[in-house]
Write a structure and sequence with these properties.
- With 195 residues, this protein is an all-alpha fold.
- The protein folds into 2 domains: 49 residues, Arc Repressor Mutant, subunit A (Orthogonal Bundle); 139 residues, Tetracycline Repressor, domain 2.
- It is built from 10 helices and no strands.
- Helix 2 packs across helix 3, helix 4 packs antiparallel against helix 5 and helix 4 crosses helix 7.
- The termini are far apart.
């Protein structure tokens, strides 16, 4: 029995991730991925059998990676404001590395092709929700359901990313100018969320 070359398999996944998340080519073919990875399409099909299987694996790994990064920040033993700043920094660092990741993830989450396993809420998120409730009791956050606080946070972070092409064109922004705009948003987001 042949031994699988996990280095080639990882190269294909990393290349697919780059194409989907960094270049925004959601409709890339297995041939596009093979060419970018410097391998044959046959090798891509050997490891993943189809583009859908490769999509699913890249998506699942991206979801797990995102959850792990979020959990590390949300469970950190820091004052709430510092934790929130760290979360925003981590979110935008991911966006800088993979500008189309959010769009790809949202598209896949909303499609019928990918089911998100129903898992229990992460312990780190439970901690963060308790932090939110405590901050509301202190008066540093306006009282609301913690889920609404999280919706507000993610909306303020993700919406500009999802609409990036529109706003770049509308305001004639280069990639660098758009990144500066995102950087300036951190202070505004904190001011909007905290009293």
């Amino acid at each position: 029995m042949a031994v699988r070359d996990t280095g080639a398999e990882q190269l294909i996944k990393d290349t697919a991730k780059q194409i989907f998340f960094a270049e925004g080519k959601r409709n890339a073919t297995t041939q596009d991925i093979a060419d970018a990875a410097g391998v044959t399409r046959t090798l891509v099909n050997y490891y993943f059998r189809s583009k859908d299987i490769l999509f699913k694996q890249v998506f699942d790994e991206a979801m797990l990676d995102m959850r792990n990064k979020f959990d590390a920040v949300l469970a950190a033993d820091l004052p709430f404001r510092k934790k929130l700043e760290g979360f925003i920094d981590m979110f935008y660092a991911e966006v800088t590395a993979f500008p189309y990741k959010e769009s790809f993830m949202i598209t896949e989450i909303n499609s019928h092709d990918f089911d998100i396993d129903k898992k229990e809420i992460s312990p780190a998120l439970r901690i963060f929700i308790k932090d939110i409730q405590l901050e509301m009791e202190k008066g540093t956050i306006k009282k609301m359901r913690p889920a609404n606080f999280m919706l507000n946070l993610f909306s303020l972070l993700a919406y500009p990313l999802i609409t990036r092409p529109l706003f770049k064109k509308l305001f004639e922004l280069s990639d660098i100018e758009f990144e500066r705009l995102l950087h300036d948003r951190k202070k505004m987001i904190l001011e909007m969320l905290l009293c």
